[in-house]
Specification:
heterodimer, A: alpha+beta, Immunoglobulin-like, 3 helices, 16% helix, B: Rossmann fold, seven-stranded mixed beta sheet
Chain lengths: 409, 435
């Protein structure tokens, strides 16, 4: 009787133990399968969401060229179909990477999309679309987090290999995986003419074309440009449908310069402000005189200067102090065609040039929009090749889930 | 003891079940769980390469042509380094059992790895021509005549940089395919003929479209250079025109500026100028437009009215209806224009029979920068006015797209069935590295 009871007890204990063990084992497998399934669905969502952003222009259609907050989020150029993005909609995305700054004269905070000194793009927060709005419009708030990066496929880098007359510049053109050999390079060289004193600087411009060699390099010699001249050099490289942009500036004054800030997309208005509003290097706080021009890329890939009337505010001076003088200049860009605003300046006989793209593609600026995916548990990514005003870009979306087990980092 | 043995047997069975289920329940590799959408990447790469029809051009070149090398460089440059590719061009065959014949292939790897995906893209030869046959306005009803005022004995204003004659020629090229008959009104005498319901070439005068290419000026026949038409600096002539537009159910198109601001006849007004040095015209001023609207509104008596009905509203946008039609008809004026002569919305109150049949530009500041107005009598349209209150110089594409957007003639496109004119490009992508 006792043996039977012991047998019963032992067998029951062993059975329960085994059942628990197997439940754990099967649960592990099922859980892994569910997680894989969830990850798979994130990947599908990533692909769908990327297409959703890139294949619809948003509401209203031309929100990129207005100051309004869209009621539907989309980056497609409304004048085209397929994967062609609006250079202005992209410009209105609040940058994740740049350090924002507040212009104390107007109290406006600007999203910083600049690419190094002299290549500025500042968009006011009041007109930039932030991640929260985009997420809400896409229906992903509280469910998915994302980061959208739009980077140019073709890199055009320009180095100064001989500073004195003749100025020699080496242009290197490469794609994401290969140099672009035998590409056509159209370029614009804009030299600041030194006038001295309290004068607004003038400039001379030169446009030409060259070709890259088998290694994707081209050498350009510029006559009548000395080592102490300030200039800007902009190059467009193109081959078999791929177009890339590069730029290079030399300045002799890098403390006091002009900073272009976008004021209104709808009115095409740009504020030109004194650099001491960003970095105050201390006295002397001299006025900065400027002379602006606008160049655009034509359909035959040649750069063309677009004349600007004096009424657009292309000539003027800006001061830093609090006096009665006008503290910033206002300039109206004459067109919605993407191009480059070139501002030549002089202060205390120091000269320079700053550039600002009008339409993100004209200087192939990259855009990083959204949240940082660092530390997220599972991030799905997908990429597409896109065109932004004929400049080849790669659009990459990183997506992660904010809901469910083992998805929050 | 027996129960313990039974339990161990159960454990063995469950263990076996677990091992067997684990064997079959193979979890996919991470790459398969979260794959890069290679199909979409391939398609967008092909589209990028064909942005200026470079890919289309290369696909029809011989395999020894240098452009194949350029295409390979571009392809290698634009794809990420961990992507391998194979691009093959096929001839599209017809009539046989074989549909596609491979012609040429370029690749950067011997194999495309364990998994790959492909997209296809059909390219057309530059030799192919597509035929589009437009429906004629008036084909399914009455009317269908387009009159373009091209009077040699009148001068234009606010058409700086052009002559009325050059604008008339461009309008003829743009719009004549869409109308049953397109008549150039060569003189003011011919204008008088149609104002008296006499045909010029056997066309239908009723329900016609009349485009005034003279900008703010309107040609006046000699017979009307007298009273009562000359009353109030020829405002009465504008009233008379409004009456005729209503009577014949015309659509009168004013291509730019302030409509009916001047009347012009170089023979009758040789010493009169518009105060800007253009001879052969007399300034009617603001009453001209008001008089026309009175005539269109069938006011029994003309009353002098000097009310300002236009405003400067600055930059304006094309309306969504017209933007849609731009793609359909392939006419692409700039969607942004400057309007300094936008007609105020209040005219709809002054003339209650007047309605907006088509806004060509979006309404701005209580004004219509450009619109086609209908005079409605019950349910019937009796006369229309297309007024583009834009600043000079005129873009006649706006007039053309405005009229086409209103009448909406259909386009019959020929089927694309020509042989040896299309090739299929297949780009297959594979991923290397990783798991």
């Amino acid at each position: 009787m006792a043996g039977s009871t012991i047998d019963h007890l032992v067998s029951l204990m062993v059975f329960l133990g085994a059942i628990l063990l197997f439940i754990g084992l099967f649960n592990q497998t099922i859980q892994t399968a569910i997680l894989y399934q969830r990850h798979r669905s994130i990947a599908t969502k990533c692909s769908d969401l990327l297409d959703n952003m890139l294949l619809n222009p948003g509401v209203p259609l031309y929100w990129g060229k207005s100051n309004c907050t869209p009621t539907g989020f989309g980056l497609q150029d409304p004048e085209f179909t397929q994967y062609r993005l609006s250079p202005f909609s992209l410009m209105r995305l609040q940058s994740l990477t740049g350090t924002p700054f507040t212009y104390p004269r107007t109290g406006t905070t600007y999203s910083n999309m600049s690419v190094g000194f002299g290549n500025f793009l500042f968009v006011p927060y009041t007109e930039a679309i932030n991640y929260s709005i985009a997420s809400r419009l896409l229906g992903t708030n509280n469910t998915y987090g994302f980061q959208l990066t739009i980077t140019p496929i073709i890199t055009v880098s320009i180095d100064e290999t001989h500073a004195a007359n003749p100025l020699t510049l080496t242009i290197r053109v490469a794609g994401t995986g290969f140099p672009l050999a035998n590409a056509v390079v159209s370029y614009c060289f804009l030299k600041v003419v030194e006038k001295g004193g309290q004068n607004k600087p003038s400039y001379t411009s030169m446009f030409n074309t060259t070709y890259t060699d088998d290694e994707g390099s081209a050498v350009v010699n510029i006559q009548n440009a000395d080592a102490d001249n300030a200039y800007a050099f902009i190059a467009y490289a193109h081959m078999s449908g791929l177009v890339g942009v590069g730029y290079h500036e030399r300045v002799t004054g890098h403390k006091e310069y002009v900073l272009p800030l976008i004021d209104s997309f709808e009115e095409k208005r740009v504020l030109l402000v004194h650099s001491y509003n960003v970095h105050d290097f201390g006295p002397p706080e001299s006025s900065v005189f400027f002379n602006a021009t606008f160049v655009l890329l034509t359909e035959d890939f040649a750069l063309r200067e677009m004349p600007m009337d004096n009424s657009t505010g292309k000539l003027g001076k800006v001061v830093y102090g609090q006096g009665t003088e006008k503290q910033y200049g206002t300039l109206t860009i004459p067109t919605y065609n993407p191009g480059i605003l070139i501002v030549t300046y002089q202060s205390n006989n120091e000269y320079g040039v700053v550039l600002m793209p009008w339409g993100i593609s004209s200087m192939a600026f990259p855009v990083t929009f959204g949240e940082d995916p660092t530390g997220k548990e599972w991030v799905a990514t997908d990429i597409r090749q896109v065109l932004v005003n004929n400049i080849a870009y790669q659009a990459k979306l990183a997506l992660w889930s904010l809901q469910g087990y083992q998805v929050i980092g | 003891m027996m129960r313990t043995i039974e339990v161990f047997l159960v454990i063995i069975i469950i263990t076996t079940a677990f091992i067997i289920s684990s064997f079959f329940a193979v979890l996919p590799q991470p790459r398969q769980v979260s794959p890069l959408n290679l199909r979409r990447l391939a398609l967008t790469t092909l589209q990028t390469l064909d942005v200026d029809y470079d890919l289309s051009g290369t696909a029809f070149k011989s395999p020894n042509d240098l452009t194949w090398g350029q295409l390979q460089i571009a392809l290698s440059a634009c794809l990420p380094p961990n992507i391998v590719y194979n691009l093959t061009v096929y001839e599209v065959l017809s009539g046989g059992t074989q549909l596609y014949l491979p012609l040429h292939s370029i690749s950067n790897a011997e194999s495309l790895g364990v998994s790959s995906d492909a997209s296809s893209y059909l390219v057309a030869s530059s030799n192919v021509t597509f035929r589009v046959i437009p429906e004629k306005i008036g084909e399914r009803g009455s009317g269908g005549t387009l009159y373009i005022l091209n009077c040699s004995d009148a001068n234009g204003w606010w058409i700086t940089g052009y002559t009325a004659q050059s604008l008339a020629a461009d309008l003829y090229n743009l719009l004549s395919p869409y109308f049953k008959a397109t008549i150039m009104v060569q003189t003011t005498a011919q204008l008088r003929q149609i104002l008296n319901n006499n045909t010029l070439q056997g066309e239908a005068v009723q329900n016609a479209v009349v485009i005034n290419t003279f900008g703010e000026a309107v040609p006046i026949p000699t017979e009307y250079c007298t009273t009562p038409y000359s009353n109030n600096s020829y405002a009465y002539y504008c009233y008379f025109l409004g009456q005729k537009v209503r009577l014949y159910n015309w659509t009168w198109a004013s291509i730019v500026g302030y409509p009916f601001y001047y009347v012009s006849n170089t023979g009758n007004f040789p010493n009169d100028q518009n105060t800007y040095g253009i001879y052969g015209m007399i300034k009617v001023n603001k009453p001209g437009m008001n008089a026309f609207l009175q005539g269109l509104d069938n006011k029994p008596q003309y009353t002098y009215d000097n009310t300002e009905i236009v405003k400067d509203v600055g930059v304006v946008n094309l309306s969504p209806q017209v933007l849609d039609c731009c793609n359909y008809y392939g006419i692409y004026p700039s969607p942004y224009q400057t309007s300094t002569r936008a007609i105020q919305k209040s005219i709809l109150n002054t003339y209650p029979h007047l309605t907006v049949g088509l806004p060509i530009f979006n309404e701005k500041s209580e004004c219509y920068p450009g619109a086609l107005y209908n005079h409605i009598n019950g349910a019937k349209i009796e006369g229309s006015l297309l007024a583009l209150g834009l600043t000079r110089t005129p873009d006649i594409r706006l007039t053309a797209i405005g009229l086409l957007s209103y009448y909406k003639p259909r386009l019959y496109r020929s089927n694309y069935t020509a042989t040896d004119t299309s090739r299929l490009v297949v780009l297959q992508l594979g991923q290397v590295g990783g798991v």
